[in-house]
């Protein structure tokens, strides 16, 4: 009896064992299997759930009792194995197959993501994809063995979940709990191409070797900075004011000059000087030069900037000339046709990815349908940014065709930037590359009317303080030696140099952090013939790179804060590792640290004070002594360094009255604590 069912159970056993946990259906086993076999299966489950599930299936192939198969389906449904129940009932595992990609991805990033999770908080949002028993077990694990162990338990439960929406619910839960680092790991799944509503996330800022503090002695007068609505709004003597009409200041005329002559140009001027007013004037001139033919697109990098600029363009031209048709389009309006908007409006304000998508899907055959493109914050025209994708299409057309009618290009920026370069020649080459990317030979700045510009735009004073490095720092040498050992262990596991193109990485730099991210991304798409070997290698590489990341963070902390803070940071990390019940790889890595821990402790206690902190302490003491109403914002390189600097201020007698707050975040959300 039940020959078909038994054959199908064998046929689909690889699927079933991925999801089924025998102890959940213990009542079924107690009814149809002998007591000794049930105990053996439950005992095996403590070592390997998958092996235990396979043992159960093998016993089920021998069952002959009437009704056992229906009883199996019934208990699956009663135990909330809804997806597995439906798949076995219909012998259709397509829906479960769809979960494989998410499962494989989560398996690979497990060593990283579990270090950034808070299980007790997440469970409040994940009851729909976890069984009540699993939730209780995760809570007990956190209570008894700590957060990391509970995180591993949570991930293990998700990997065996048959709910089709568990991956989405996990992302929603991480977002709701503001666990941004964990969410970021999930959102880089497979290098997805979806545009983020919050805009483009560029590469991390380059490391700075000089301490720079900006401050001013008194508050800026309200009329010093330019207001968009009243800037350069003038009325001629004896004439009534025309609402919304703007007359450019002399320095603004100077900024618009090259563009009104039809040149491709980058307009570079300080924030607050009214570059958008200049852009409006350029659009007006262009519309007059090409009546009935002009097609203008103004591009913004982020949705909130788009909304602000669209409102300004709409208000300006509704007052200036209502016959000029202005519209806008951003990421949540993809149902609209880009080509229709361009053909039926004179000016379209949009986010850059919208135009990229229209070019890629051939909705727009080329950029030749346009006559003028303005790039707000054009310094982003590098790498894989949507701006650079647009200009690549532009340049491909220009260089591949002898005749073309490509649009004029105008970029707007407060700074052309120097990238990560540290000498004049490299900085100049970086600026030239930006010009090449935007197909311009001209950078327009204010030269003739600098005094007028200064009267409207306040530039904060800048003081640079050169600080000597510590004469010697054995802490750095020890940490770098540990990192070199870990890199060698990783290299013995897999050729990690083949997983990233980033060269010349230095320990204790943000470039090294970029290299770690690059290696981990490559691990996610690594494919090998042996799936188990692939999984083992990926897990080991994630462990190695996570430890390298922590040591790299510690070097950055030590560079700008106290050695004590760097050691505290590492201690906290290894406490988490130990509480999670680490594997053989983690044991080796922990042993490397434990071996050097006594010497590191001695250096943290007896080593020299960081000269940067001495200088910073002097600056803050002097500033607040001269003006007790001083308000300070201090920018640092990493989140870990934020905590270290706050701790240093709180523990410094002459500074702890400041009671510093903390503001961190990356695009999606910020987290503010303190006063």
Automatic annotation (TrEMBL):
SMART domains, sorted: DEXDc
Ubl conjugation in keyword set: yes
Segments traversing the membrane: none
Pfam families to which the protein is assigned, alphabetical: CARD_2, ResIII, RIG-I_C
Helicase ATP-binding domain span: 256-434
Keywords: Immunity, Innate immunity, Isopeptide bond, Phosphoprotein, Ubl conjugation
Record has Phosphoprotein as a keyword: yes
PANTHER family xref list: ANTIVIRAL INNATE IMMUNE RESPONSE RECEPTOR RIG-I, HELICASE WITH DEATH DOMAIN-RELATED
UniProt protein name: Helicase ATP-binding domain-containing protein
Lineage: Eukaryota, Metazoa, Chordata, Craniata, Vertebrata
């Amino acid at each position: 009896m039940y020959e078909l069912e038994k054959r199908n159970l064998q046929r689909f056993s690889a699927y079933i064992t991925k999801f089924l946990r025998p102890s959940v259906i213990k009542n079924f086993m107690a009814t149809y299997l002998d007591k000794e076999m049930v105990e053996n299966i439950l005992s095996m489950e403590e070592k390997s759930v998958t092996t235990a599930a396979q043992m159960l299936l093998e016993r089920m192939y021998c069952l002959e009792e009437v009704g056992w198969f229906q009883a199996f389906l019934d208990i699956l449904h009663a135990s909330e194995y809804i997806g597995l129940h439906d798949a076995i009932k219909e012998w259709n595992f397509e829906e479960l197959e769809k979960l494989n990609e998410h499962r494989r991805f989560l398996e690979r990033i497990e060593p990283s993501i579990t270090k950034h999770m808070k299980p007790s908080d997440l469970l409040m949002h994940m009851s729909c994809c976890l069984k009540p028993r699993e939730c209780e077990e995760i809570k007990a694990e956190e209570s008894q063995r700590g957060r990391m162990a509970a995180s591993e338990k949570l991930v293990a439960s998700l990997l065996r979940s048959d709910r089709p929406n568990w991956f989405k619910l996990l992302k929603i839960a991480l977002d709701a709990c503001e666990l941004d680092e964990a969410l970021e790991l999930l959102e880089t799944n497979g290098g997805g191409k979806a545009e983020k509503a919050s805009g483009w996330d560029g590469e991390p800022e380059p490391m700075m070797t000089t301490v720079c503090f900006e401050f001013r002695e008194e508050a800026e007068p309200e009329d010093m900075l330019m207001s968009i609505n009243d800037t350069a709004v003038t009325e001629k003597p004896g004439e009534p004011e025309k609402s919304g009409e703007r007359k450019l200041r002399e320095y603004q005329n100077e900024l618009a000059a090259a563009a009104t002559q039809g040149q491709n140009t980058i307009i570079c001027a300080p924030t607050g000087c009214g570059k958008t007013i200049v852009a409006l004037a350029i659009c007006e001139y262009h519309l007059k030069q090409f009546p009935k033919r002009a097609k203008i697109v103004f591009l913004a990098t982020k949705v909130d900037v788009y909304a602000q600029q669209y409102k300004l363009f709409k208000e300006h031209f509704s007052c200036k000339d209502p016959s000029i048709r202005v519209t806008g389009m951003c990421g949540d309006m993809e149902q609209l046709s880009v080509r229709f908007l361009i053909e039926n409006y004179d000016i379209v304000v949009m986010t850059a990815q919208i135009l990229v998508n229209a070019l890629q899907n051939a909705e727009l055959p080329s950029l030749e349908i346009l006559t003028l493109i303005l790039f707000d914050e054009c310094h982003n025209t590098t790498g894989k940014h949507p701006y650079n994708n647009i200009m690549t299409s532009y340049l491909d057309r220009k260089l591949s065709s002898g005749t073309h009618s490509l649009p004029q290009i105008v970029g707007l920026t407060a700074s052309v930037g120097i990238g990560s370069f540290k000498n004049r020649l490299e900085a100049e080459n970086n600026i030239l590359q930006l010009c090449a990317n935007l197909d311009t030979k001209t950078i327009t700045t204010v030269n003739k009317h600098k005094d007028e510009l200064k009267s409207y735009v306040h530039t904060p004073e800048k003081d640079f303080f050169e600080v000597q490095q510590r004469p010697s720092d054995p802490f750095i040498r020890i940490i770098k030696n540990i990192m070199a050992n870990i890199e060698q262990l990783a290299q013995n596991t897999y050729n990690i140099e083949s997983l990233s193109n980033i060269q010349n990485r230095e320990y204790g730099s943000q470039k090294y952090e970029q290299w770690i991210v690059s290696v981990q991304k490559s691990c996610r798409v690594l494919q090998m013939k042996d799936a188990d070997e692939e999984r083992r290698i990926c897990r080991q590489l994630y462990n190695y790179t996570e430890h390298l990341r922590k040591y790299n963070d510690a070097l950055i902390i030590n560079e700008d804060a106290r050695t004590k803070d760097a050691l505290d940071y590492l201690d906290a990390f290894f406490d988490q590792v130990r509480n999670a019940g680490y594997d053989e790889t983690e044991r080796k890595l922990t042993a490397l640290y434990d071996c050097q821990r006594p010497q590191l402790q001695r250096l943290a206690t007896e080593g020299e004070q960081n000269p940067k902190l001495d200088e910073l302490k002097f600056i803050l003491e002097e500033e607040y002594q001269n003006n007790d109403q001083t308000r300070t914002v201090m920018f640092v390189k990493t989140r870990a360094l934020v905590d270290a600097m706050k701790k240093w201020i709180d523990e410094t007698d002459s500074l702890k009255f400041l009671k510093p707050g903390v503001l961190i975040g990356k695009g999606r959300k910020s987290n503010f604590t303190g006063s």
